[in-house]
UniProtKB/TrEMBL annotation:
Position of the signal peptide: none
Pfam families reported for this sequence: PsbP (PF01789)
NCBIfam families linked: PSII_PsbP
Organism this protein belongs to: Sphagnum troendelagicum
Record-annotated PsbP C-terminal domain positions: 89-264
Lineage, highest ranks first: Eukaryota, Viridiplantae, Streptophyta, Embryophyta, Bryophyta
Protein name, as recorded: PsbP C-terminal domain-containing protein
InterPro entries: Mog1/PsbP_a/b/a-sand (IPR016123), PsbP_C (IPR002683)
Length: 269
């Protein structure tokens, strides 16, 4: 179930300076909003039925000693409604740079994060989405195939991430692997690459210990990064989603929906 709401309202890792030769941040995004679209028609009926669940039986109804059969409890009904609302999305359209995508309605925009646009979950800061665009002056992409095969593009993306996440702390190491790569033709007729990687960070619990057995590496975080790469206007566009590895299975359907919503747009001359 997906609810898309267009609005004027418009990881937690921005790009490091070493990556800005590949991507150029923008001061402010320009976007427009379209009509409201809803694919969930049962919500009003569900909400209206709450009162019926708890209406008192008529006085003529005899009392029975047998265990009565009640409808679902109030909390179950309320939870189902809240779950439906939580799956609402807003569409972000940037006509100045040429791209659009859907993002969870409850996420907030963070400015100054180094990306062209950046949204994150205000509760779970490890969940976010951003868009990066290559510099128009230093890149002349003709198509996403300029990156090579999806597998070759995945290796480039992973190297870029590891550069961003490089740490100067003692005893920190990063483990990473490419989970999946692929290509697909969007409904706009353009070719997109999908890249999925996992990055985990480990740190010693006692960085200053002399004996190796006293320096035990412990997991700090493990994250899944899902990227969509597309080319238009001679520029490379990347949508990047970040979620904790443990949330991937639970949220995979919604994350795939965000990835599929990403489109690059032809800029008017």
């Amino acid at each position: 179930m997906l609810v898309v709401l267009d609005s004027h309202a418009c990881g937690a890792h921005g790009l490091s300076s070493s990556c800005r030769e590949f991507f150029e941040p923008k001061a402010a995004a320009q976007f427009t909003a379209g009509p409201v679209v809803s694919t969930h028609q049962q919500l009003p009926a569900a909400a209206a039925s709450i009162g019926g669940y708890f209406a008192c039986p008529p006085l003529s109804t005899p009392l029975r000693s047998a265990k009565p059969s009640f409808p679902p409890p109030r909390l179950v009904v309320a939870a189902s409604i809240l779950a439906a609302i939580s799956l609402a999305y807003r569409k972000y359209v940037d006509r100045l740079d040429g791209y659009e995508f859907n993002y969870p309605a409850g996420w907030i925009q963070v400015r100054g994060a180094g990306a062209d646009v950046f949204f994150r979950d205000p509760v779970n800061l490890d969940e976010n989405v951003l868009v990066e665009i290559s510099s128009p002056s230093s890149s002349k992409f003709k198509g996403v195939q300029d990156l090579g095969s999806p597998e070759q593009a995945g290796k480039k993306v992973l190297r870029q991430y590891l550069t961003e996440f490089m740490s100067t702390r003692l005893g920190v190491r990063r483990e990473s692997n490419i989970v999946a790569t692929g290509s697909r033709l969007g409904d706009d007729g353009r070719l997109y690459y999908d890249v999925e990687v996992n990055v985990s960070s480990y740190a010693n619990n006692n960085q200053l210990a002399v004996m190796p057995q006293d320096r035990v590496a412990q997991l700090e975080w493990s994250r899944r990064y899902l990227s969509v790469l597309g080319v238009e206007n001679s520029r490379l566009y990347e949508l990047r989603l970040q979620v904790p590895e443990g949330a991937m299975e639970r949220e995979e359907k919604d994350l795939r929906g965000i990835m599929d919503s990403f489109r690059v747009l032809k800029l008017e001359a």
